[in-house]
Specification:
Elements (H helix, E strand, L loop, with lengths): L1 H14 L5 E8 L3 E11 L5 E2 L6 E2 L4 H15 L26 H5 L11 H5 L6 H14 L14 H15 L3 H13 L5 E2 L27 H5 L9 E3 L1 H12 L3 E2 L2 E2 L3 H7 L4 E4 L10 E4 L4 E3 L4 H4 L7 E6 L3 E6 L4 E7 L11 H19 L1
Antiparallel strand pairs: 1-2, 1-14, 2-3, 4-6, 5-6, 7-8, 9-10, 10-11, 12-13, 13-14
Helix pairs in contact: 1-12, 2-6, 2-7, 5-6
């Protein structure tokens, strides 16, 4: 009955024009409870049916699954520290009279950086070399004016995770895509996960935005990630529901999967628990609404109500992706739900918030019954 309810929720969203299709996977630490594909992975230039193994542009789910995971591995190795100032690794202007912004501030979106800038427009297309582009972007980010002091407010920032990816590059000697392939995807057995998917997988990719010149297929949707050769730290990762379920199980197993340890239990606990608590609005009283964030994972912010639904508990975390992606992991229920859509295929104004909410409630009930 629950699987049928998920199919029906997806069919309602498709009929309402909210997305051409969806893949949903609900699982526990050891079992897949539901893995369904509904609708189409593309409607233009021609209709293509959705498949359970469709490869999706994960957009901002790149932040926790790739960038934050890589950062925590480097913290475990003693290469960087969460309390280290950002200026230790990249060009960064700390403001007089303010505390130094740290790696932790970047991971929790409390560094004071603005949310986003279009670097294709700002820096132009005249820089051909990838390293020069990255250096130019990081130098500009580090010099930006900031509206808030480090640690003062939660301001969701793609620029912060672009900065983290560059720190990974500088300290490890590997670009984020190479680092993650060697240290995360290959050890975990996630063959369909990576940046810049090979062209032989395009036939399985979900198409994203229909641009005037073409429909994006197998090419990252985020403009800054495209400017950075498909590897932005904030976006650029592609994957399938099956591969992402392996990542979720690694989190539920405290950093280990099938005998392979990717992170320590201590690192997983830090990532998935409250690491920042900031007023939700500047004028909020001390006892007013607050934003809670882990290290790369959303715990309780304005972004998360539709992900949590009504039934997932307080010890849970997740993330959304602009293209129509979401993950939610409940540490007490020991289960997770992955919802993959390509909602931007119909335009950037289309919303799947209601679909996320409905699927989360159905999934949480499935997981809860399984563990009862």
């Amino acid at each position: 009955m629950s699987e049928k309810a998920i199919v029906q929720a997806c069919e309602r969203a498709i009929a309402a024009g909210q997305t051409p299709g969806a893949v949903v996977l609900v699982g526990t630490r050891s079992t897949t409870l539901c893995h369904i594909a509904v609708g189409h992975r593309a409607v233009a230039p021609k209709p293509l049916p959705m498949r359970p193994d469709t490869v999706f542009d994960l957009a901002s789910v790149t932040k926790p699954v790739a960038t934050a995971t890589a950062v925590m591995q480097l913290v475990e190795a003693g290469v960087i520290g969460l309390r280290d100032p950002i200026s230790r690794y990249v060009p960064w202007v700390d403001r007089d009279g303010e505390p130094q912004a740290t790696i932790r501030h970047l991971l929790t979106h409390t560094s004071g950086l603005p949310p986003w800038l279009d670097y294709t427009a700002k820096l132009g297309v005249g820089i051909a070399d990838d390293v020069e582009r990255r250096d130019a972007v990081i130098a500009d980010i580090g010099s930006l004016s900031r509206d808030t002091r480090p640690g003062e407010r939660f301001v969701y920032s793609c620029l912060g995770f672009i900065t983290l990816a560059d720190i990974i590059r500088r300290v490890s000697g590997e670009r984020l895509d190479g680092y993650c392939r060697e240290h995360i995807w290959q050890p975990m057995g996630m063959p369909d996960t990576g940046f810049n998917p090979p062209k032989n997988t395009y036939r399985r990719c979900a198409a994203t935005e229909q641009l005037p010149e073409s429909t994006l297929l197998g090419v990252v949707h985020d403009e800054n990630a495209r400017f950075l050769d498909g590897v932005g730290g904030n976006a650029g990762l592609f994957s399938t529901a099956g591969d992402l379920s392996r990542y979720c199980r690694m989190i539920l197993n405290k950093g280990e999967l099938d005998g392979t340890r990717v992170m320590s239990p201590a690192a997983v606990d830090l990532m998935t628990s409250r690491q920042s608590s900031t007023p939700r609005a500047p004028e909020a009283l001390a006892e007013g609404p607050r934003d809670y964030y882990g290290l790369g994972w959303d715990i309780d912010t304005d972004y998360s109500p539709s992900l949590r639904g009504d039934l997932f508990g307080p010890r849970s975390c997740g993330h959304t992706g602009y293209t129509g992606i979401s993950i939610w992991i409940d540490l007490d229920l020991q289960g997770f739900v992955i919802l993959l859509t390509n909602r931007v295929h119909f335009g950037r104004e289309v919303s799947i918030q209601r679909l996320r909410y409905e699927v989360s409630n159905i999934a949480a009930a499935m997981i809860s019954r399984e563990g009862a």
